[in-house]
Amino acid sequence: MTGLPRRSLLVGGAALAAAGGLAGIADLARAASIDRTNTSGQLRIGYLPITDSAPLLIAHAAGLYEKGVVSAAKPILFRSWASLAEAFVTRQVDAVHMLMPTAIQLRFLLRSPVRLLSWNHTNGSALTVAPHITDLGQLAGTQVAIPFWWSIHNIILQQLLRAHDLVPVVRTSASRSARTVELIVMSPSDMVPALANRSISGYVVADPFNAMAQVRKIGRIHTFLGDVWRDHACCVVLAHDDLIENRPEAATSLVGSIVAAQQRINADRAAAASVLSAGAYLPQPLPAIKTALTYRQQDYRFLHPQWQPQRLGYQPFPFPSFTRRLVEAMHDTVVDGDRRFLDRLDPAAVHAELVDDSFVRAALTAHGGPETFGLPSNLTRTEQVQPR
Question: Name one Pfam family in it (predicted).
Answer without folding.
Answer: NMT1_2
